[in-house]
Amino acid sequence: MIQQIILVLTFIAAIGCGVVAGIFFAFSSFVMAALGRIPPAQGIAAMQSINVTVINPGFMLAFFGTALLCLALTGMAFFPWEQPGSALIVAASLLYLLGCIGVTMARNVPLNDLLAVAQPGAPEAHALWSRYLREWTLWNHVRTVAPAASAVLFTMALLSRYVARHLAASG
């Protein structure tokens, strides 16, 4: 029974990681570049608006729901550890938790907090915006790669369990 639960949760975690990676990929590949092309006051105002509206049930469910699945799967993968894919599940979970949630809290959120209090038209806001674009985007690249790699590792774990189950049934 626990093995079926692990399979279902691993599948959902893989999907969640893919969704989160896609969101961050959009920011890394074109959203931040687009915001950097408009006047700083407008870019700041747009990003301030994004940072408020991103706090919504859909994003929070994908972002933190996937984190909760990763925490649960990390514990469940140890019982029994010898199951195929257990190490992949733990690696995928830790990568998501550290590379996505950890980086967000340690790097991106503090930058968002600085930007939140900036007055878009103020002279010092221009320098902050330049720094913000550079640093936030760099850390967002990490946040893009981490859940994408986690999705791959979760998928590999599912495949390894599937192959092992079919080999045992045919063997």
From TrEMBL:
Signal peptide: none annotated. The keyword Transmembrane applies. InterPro entries: Anthrone_oxy. Keywords: Membrane, Transmembrane, Transmembrane helix. The keyword Transmembrane helix applies. The chain crosses the membrane at residues 7-35, 55-79, 86-106, 145-164. This is Membrane protein. It comes from Pseudoxanthomonas sacheonensis.
